Amino acid sequence: MDHTPLAPVPISRRVIRVADARRALVGPAPWRLSAAVAASVVLSLLLLVVQRRSLAELFVLSTNGAPGPDAWLYPAALVSTSLVLLAPSLLVAALLLVAKRSRASRSAFLGLTSLSLLLALLDLDLLCSIGRHLAEITALALQPEGHVAGGSIGGWLAVVLWWATAAILSTLLVTRACQVAVAFVCRRLTPLLRAVVGFAGIALVASAIAAPILLLGAWGNHAVVERLYASALLDVRLHRSASDDPALLDPHLGGLFERLRSSYKAAFPALTGSGKPADARPLALPARPPNVVLIVAESFRHDAFGPELMPRLSRWAERGLVSTRHDAGTIYSQSGAFALLYGRSPAVFHQTLDAQVPPQFCVTLRNSGYECDYFTGHPQVWMRREDFLNERTMDHFVHNDRGSWPEWDQRALDNLIERIDASDRPVFATVLLMSSHFDYRYPPQYEIDRPVSNTAWLVTMVSALGPEAELPHRNRYRNCMRFIDDLVANAIGRLDPERNVIILTGDHGESINDDGHYTHGYSFAEILTRTPFAMVGPGIAPARLEVPTSHIDVLPSVLHALSGQRTELAHLHGVDWLAGERNGSELAAHSPPSKQSVETQLRVAGHRLRIDLDLTRPTISLKGFEDELGHPMRTPELSEQELDRIAEAFEEQLSRLRR
What we know:
The chain is 47% helix and 12% strand.
């Protein structure tokens, strides 16, 4: 046997052998459709991790003793929605591969997937921060004066760049990893096995997309399925709502749904027809009726109106009527102003404006000898508010937005007083103040509570709107309320108390992390809908209303105060407090710009039930029960009497809308 020793292997040859081994293991990674499919699945799972943290309360609700497989259907539905969002990227990549343009296919997949992921992340960020979807924010930003509420474009670009970077890097890394992994697996399979595995993978992805959509009937908690698709960027259900079929509802909602839908079917023709005209009848008034001044503060929280922050206005209010449980009945400025000036529910917002009906308050008082005026610096064009607050509906429409928000408000009140002094007729004036809108502005001398935020709306990042942001934002709001107290009290002091009925309220409320979000407009949480109400002037006896009142009640109650008797006007939805009428229930409402539905919350007997009214067909969508913060609740055990009360209250509210 030859025992000649082996010569050592040169280092260069060892490096070559290692490289050969690596190529044997991995080899070149050609672009395949299966790599794109795998990357889509992995990215959807990664997105699920982010969604699970951001939508934690729905995950808890879906797993807390719910009947049926909700615990796995909820994450499966989110993955399904993400895969649908990424489907266009797969389709384009597949078409380009068929055309034998591999490089273009990969580039298109990377670009479209990054864009889709960016939209999903940005939408989720906005939803968690301020409770609104990207589409809603875009609609606001596209308003002619959208920058007033939207803030600096630089801040928005910073947020978009942050999420764009995250989306692009995630897509590149995941796609490359999947491309290498697929190449490694395919190199070890026969062509037949490769085809079988490929078709199986595509079938699995198709099943992941379709299963949650096709298994709507398997959900045990209807509130979860409705909230899930309301929180998603896309609603991928074959039908708009699972509640189109009572069999898909949980047992507690099934029977109630039939009764509510039956009531809505009967009311549907009247609610979706042309808006009712204004009632032109004048009031029977004394020889010298007082002026009526309606002062509306933006985002006016009900708990801000008290001796601590607003001592002067609190003392002033004691001379008249104060409602301690007043509610705007809506969540946006335009619908709050609509309810006050029309005495109608925001549920008929679009129908009324499409019919070009002028504000009932102006019609009645103008026909009774008043002039009607409007003073503000608030955006002149805003979500159809310009359709009823404009130079045609007002005798004097004074809009001035020079300078800062506090300057707008000071100028609006100065112009109001000048007009009252100059007019030879009684004046009905509406003043809309802007300073208390997010981000709550005031002159420097009112900065008493510190620290304060300096966000100027640039707070769309979840980290910037978490619990740690509550104190500086709350301090800003408190400082702003002190400014509003002096601003309005000074203006009231310049008006003759014997000649002016002055009403102070807000367009809606405001959340400062009370419900985990900031600002307003995203739910019917009580902190968003409740707002102060006070009315002081000749003929108004000092009193405190401890019962629920609403913006739609203001018009009939003020007309009673002016005429000394209950006024019968057609098409009003509110009650007359001074006639002793009370609300047994309330239907808070918001009409989205799409005109496809009306979002409502029925409040009765301590329950809050979210109901969407479909304006395209006579059906409703039950979103489930909510707590006072607008958070979803499990359907409570309801007695027959409670079910009857809810059904009767809904019927009563629909009857009002049909007036």
